[in-house]
Design brief:
Elements: H1 24-33, E1 64-67, E2 72-75, H2 77-92, E3 99-102, H3 112-121, E4 125-129, E5 147-150
Parallel strand pairs: 3-4, 4-5
Antiparallel strand pairs: 1-2
Helix pairs in contact: 2-3
């Protein structure tokens, strides 16, 4: 509903602009898909080995917008649900979708709960970032059985004080 959209955001005008505004999505995609052992930059977790064998194919889906009012990106749960349902539809059409990354705070709303269950029923691994405010608050996705909730650790593999938990 555009009545609830901050006027400086683009949430009322869906478009094909892939800009993620603060580069967070691009950073995460790079961490996931960077080629391993090629001597360039970092070794991704699913990018393939030395470029000789293909790694993951990333499907970028925009689930938020930039808000000048709040000074950063805002994820809309209805857009996230729409993206998850799109991926479930791809699976139903025969595409292999193994995992999705949700590095954003979440609430139960906008059809997100049903979309999550659609993906879990199709054996998709959903990885969710716990958050960085040091609170016992993993967000909605962090409370869903079957979702992998990831928090930060320090150099001694202990929970980082800024990482959310729960």
């Amino acid at each position: 509903n555009c009545d609830f959209c901050p006027t400086e955001g683009d949430c009322c005008n869906p478009d094909n602009d892939p800009d993620d505004y603060n580069s967070h999505g691009t950073h995460i995609a790079g961490t996931i898909g960077a080629i391993t052992n090629n001597g360039i930059g970092i070794a991704g977790i699913a990018g393939g080995w030395s470029g000789s064998k293909g790694g993951v194919k990333i499907v970028p889906l925009k689930v938020g917008y930039h808000s000048k009012r709040f000074g950063g990106g805002i994820v809309r749960m209805d857009w996230a649900a729409q993206a998850m349902n799109y991926l479930a539809d791809l699976i139903d059409d025969g595409y292999n979708v193994a995992a999705i990354n949700c590095s954003w705070g979440s609430t139960e709303g906008g059809g997100l709960a049903a979309a999550v269950q659609r993906l879990l029923a199709r054996d998709v691994t959903i990885v969710h970032a716990a958050g960085n405010s040091g609170k016992d608050n993993p967000g909605f996705l962090g409370t869903v059985e079957g979702v992998v909730n990831v928090g930060a650790t320090d150099t001694r593999a202990r929970g980082a004080p800024f990482s959310n938990y729960g």
